[in-house]
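Please predict the structure of the following assembly.
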Amino acid sequence: MDPRFKIAHREAWIGVGLAVAHFVWWFGFAYGLGSRPVEEYTYILGFPDWFFYSCIIGFILISVTVIVLAKYILKDVSFEEEGDES
Amino acid sequence: MNIGVIIPLVIFLVLIFIIGLWSSKKVESPTGGFLQDYFLGGRELGGFVLAMTMVATYGSASSFLGGPGTAYTMGFGWVLLAMTQVVTGYFILLVLGKKFSILARKYNAITLIDFLKVRYNSSVVVLLAAISMIIFLFSAMTAQWVGGGRLIESLTGVQYTTALFIFAISVLVYVVIGGFRAVAVTDAVQGAVMVIGTLILLIAVIIAGGGVPNIIQDLLAENPRLLTPYGNEGNLSAAYVSSFWILVGVGVVGLPQMAVRAMSYKNTRSMHRALVIGTIVTGFIMLNMHLIGIFARPILPGVEIADSVIPLVTLKVLPAWLAGIVLAAPLAAIMSTVDSLLILVSSSIVKDVYINYIKPDASEKSIKRLSFGVTTLLGSIVFLLALDPPDLLIFLNLFAFGGLEAAFIWPVVLGLYWSYGNKYGAIASMLTGIISYIALHFYNEAYGNLFGMHTVVLPVILSLLAYVACSLLIKKTKYIF
């Protein structure tokens, strides 16, 4: 097998894993905190707490994760090698 | 309508026009053959342009008009739903990823269907894919054109027909002449306009509403349910909102207009940059545009038509010239979706159908003439269809969305990663996906959503089962990549 595929497979799984973690975070805070009666909500920077954690913090965390992935985890491979262009 | 609003819009259209023409100059001296250059930009997109063209192609009228308008009515539950789209920023590039780029280059694939053709070695797969793509994307494109025409109409006060004509001309010329590269480069500019417009409007709306805590108090006083994840009438269920993770989240990987971008970048460094930029920009736009929709509620109560919330609130909170700049954003979103769909449908007709089956030995010159011709013709047909506009913009758009996702997601993703996937699986999966989508759509219309989920969920699961079952049961073979 093309050795580049090993890297590609690993990174595809990283993508799936990240999406699953993202979903759990999003769902957990939205419906974990958000299903309380509205009177019990607390407000952070003005936003309802469930929304602040689920969507705002969630988005920031995902962005940071993606930056770390791009910088340290994902590997560069060449698209040029092997002259099998025929 | 205020002339002060129109001037920035006209400047925007002219700017896009010039940039489109300028970036099309390169097509004159193609490096990797005309087709690769015209339909794929010569596979040389950098990280920024790649990220922006993905965001801009994906972000459409519904991200700037319909979506925020619904958030205006439904409250925070709809913003929660909109945030499922952030996943597209990284998921498509990571999952299709390097393998797709390597194989696309190896197969010399210019369209998504080229990839399917080599992978499955079946003309049934190719024709099925091409037909479903042309039909579904055509309806998506028409809906977007209607959106573009209506937007220009509402902003400038000119008649719908004239507005549509202005819109058609501004998009058609650079797409026809410049091909994919002009589409991608203008997308980058349009993406930037979308980000800037969002930022300006967000700040203005928060100031007009007296700060976020103040706005939230107003909403609480009006209807506490606006602050819950369950919508203004408490009828947004967790299952329904979560199913948008498939429709506008991970399922987007199956959309041809997105997948084709995942084979257009220059090197892995561009891809890594695009991951970061794409995720941040998508999240920024989706979060803030939908928040603007909610925040508009106390500032401008009683708007009936969802699509007009954003234009109305913009005109209310901003001086005319600045409103013009902000309102260029939804126009940019629509243009950047339309141009991508146009070039994609054209590529499908020219490359997947004509060159594959009608005239494989066509000369470079006649291909070139044909590509320009087909693109122009397509644009004209869509223009004519959009003259008598079908209603429910989001509806049509999502219909095309879900149907294509159900058809393509498994043949593409499993075709990439699962050696035992074969053409029988792919054919079964596409047919199952489309047919069950359409059937379930009508069922849900009549009886309410089955299991409380969006229509897309079951067809995606069924098409997975069909793919796996048929690949294993009919002439099981191991594909060597």
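The CA atoms of residues 26 and 54 of chain A lie 5 Å apart. DSSP finds two helices and two strands in chain A.
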